[in-house]
């Protein structure tokens, strides 16, 4: 996490590009940016004191991505260190929206920029459900 930010305002998570993340051209396969963003949101939640498996077991909620908009700006390559920067841009009753940027550490170039909307859903019924009170207060 960046020292000047708290998980409430923004959160940085490091990711190294492994060979398995790349395509035949040696650059990050486009869909893998979504995986990196997922890790960033999961670690953001963890930094706030919430584990997704515990939220499911204790509160009966899980999260599902409902919308994504990505822009690919510059390629990331094998073995580069990246930063996944996640910022919460909107909190609804049963949803969260994030702006997420994936930056190359060496020059801070933005490789991929995205907005992601996540719904809080009931684990049993898979229907939308309000964010748990403790989580909503922490955000």
Automatic annotation (TrEMBL):
Domain of life of the native organism: Bacteria
Keywords: Hydrolase
Stored InterPro entries: 4-hydroxybenzoyl-CoA_TE (IPR050563), HotDog_dom_sf (IPR029069), Tol-Pal_acyl-CoA_thioesterase (IPR014166), YbgC/YbaW (IPR006684)
A Pfam family annotated for this UniProt entry: 4HBT_2
Keyword Kinase: no
SUPFAM superfamilies: Thioesterase/thiol ester dehydrase-isomerase
The keyword Translocase appears for this protein: no
NCBIfam families in the cross-refs: thio_ybgC, YbgC/FadM family acyl-CoA thioesterase
Family of the protein in this entry: Belongs to the 4-hydroxybenzoyl-CoA thioesterase family.
This protein's name: Tol-pal system-associated acyl-CoA thioesterase
Organism: Allochromatium tepidum
């Amino acid at each position: 996490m960046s020292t000047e930010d708290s998980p409430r305002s923004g959160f940085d998570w490091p990711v190294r590009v492994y060979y398995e993340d790349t395509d035949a051209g040696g650059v990050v396969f486009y869909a893998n940016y979504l995986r990196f963003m997922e890790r960033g949101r999961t670690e953001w939640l963890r930094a706030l004191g919430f584990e997704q498996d515990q939220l499911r077991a204790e509160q009966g909620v899980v999260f599902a991505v409902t919308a994504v908009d990505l822009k690919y700006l510059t390629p990331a390559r094998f073995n580069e260190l990246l930063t996944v920067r996640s910022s919460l841009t909107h909190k609804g009753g049963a949803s969260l929206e994030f702006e997420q940027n994936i930056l190359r550490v060496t020059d801070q170039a933005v490789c991929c920029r995205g907005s992601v909307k996540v719904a809080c859903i009931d684990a049993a019924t898979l229907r939308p459900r309000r964010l748990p009170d403790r989580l909503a207060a922490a955000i």
